[in-house]
Amino acid sequence: MTTKTSAAVCIDGWSGDLDTCPVRQVLDRIGDRWSLLLLLTLKDAPHRFNALGRAIPDISRRMLAGTLKTLEADGLIWRSVEATTPPSVTYGLTARGLSLIMALGPLVEWAFAQAPAILADRRRAGGAVSGVAIAP
Amino acid sequence: MTTKTSAAVCIDGWSGDLDTCPVRQVLDRIGDRWSLLLLLTLKDAPHRFNALGRAIPDISRRMLAGTLKTLEADGLIWRSVEATTPPSVTYGLTARGLSLIMALGPLVEWAFAQAPAILADRRRAGGAVSGVAIAP
DNA sequence: GTTTCTGGTCTCAGTTAGAGACTGCAAGCG
DNA sequence: CGCTTGCAGTCTCTAACTGAGACCAGAAAC
Asked: Could you tell me which residue ranges the HTH hxlR-type domain spans (chains A, B) (predicted)?
């Protein structure tokens, strides 16, 4: 289980090294706590740095800066700096970011439809409410 | 940014508390490093505990046990114990788990189509290769 | 003069994931 | 008989990651 053999199972029969599976690489990003939320906030309109912080109250500046940086590196958002004083930085969705949101549509619908039943099951199953919930 | 006002933005205009947004709750689960991989491994056939460990070589027993537990709590997989010695435990997909995989289809297609371009951008953008990648 | 705003970075603590040892029992092998 | 293997997990220790909040410098409002 610790030997990292290649040719492991992956999504849609990807048979290469696990770390190179494209779906894994993409989901690792958008599956984190903030990326998707940021993308969906930017979907309606471009936002400035602190405006994003206000729109998503429980993100820290540190994670906001870091997540924006990786989203930009992935070409999902753009970043533009206007040389005013103080310089104002604006972020917005790229075409690729928008296409990701579109691809997410069915999943979002599924989540909305299934959420009540899942939450009921989760409650019935016991206290396992957040994360992987290993016993303390 | 630290005041947790409710009525924050969420997916598809969810306006309640961020923690109750159904899409967030679902994505927090399937977005983690192992849930989706496990689900897709179980899609083809039911597996026993150690068989899953062999199919996904780089998961630790600890995360395997924990992730299976939460997937079961969410009603995405079933778990059946046969009282042999030693008892053998089998896991498989439920109908709900299968419906999630179906909903994931467009996202998987998108990821496959976009992965080369994203990886190229990521390389061009610099060393930000894994995770949020805050500078050391 | 003090506060507030701009976009971030830095440091410190707390939480979390991963590695690997450990449990107890049964079967296979020499 | 003794050794190893496999079963399904759990336990502990350490490494990594996350969140909270201080800090920067300049400008505008009060």
From this structure: 21-119
Tracing tokens 């995405």 back to the chain, one arrives at B76
Average pLDDT over every residue of B117-123: 88
Q: How many CB pairs under 8 A join A and B?
A: 216
The domains of chain A, with CATH numbers, are 34-125 (1.10.10.10)
Pick among B61, B108, B119, B123 to test the A interface (most A CBs inside 10 A): B108
pLDDT grade for A9, boundaries at 50, 70 and 90: low
| Nearest in space to A68 (alpha carbons), one of A46, A48, A38, A88 | A38
Angle at Cα B87 formed by Cα B86 and Cα B89, nearest 5°? 135
Q: Give Cα separations from A65 to A50, A61, B32, B87 (angstroms).
A: 10, 6, 21, 49
Q: Say if residue A119's pLDDT is above 90.
A: no
Instruction: Say yes or no: Cβ of B14 under 7 A from any atom of strand D.
Output: no
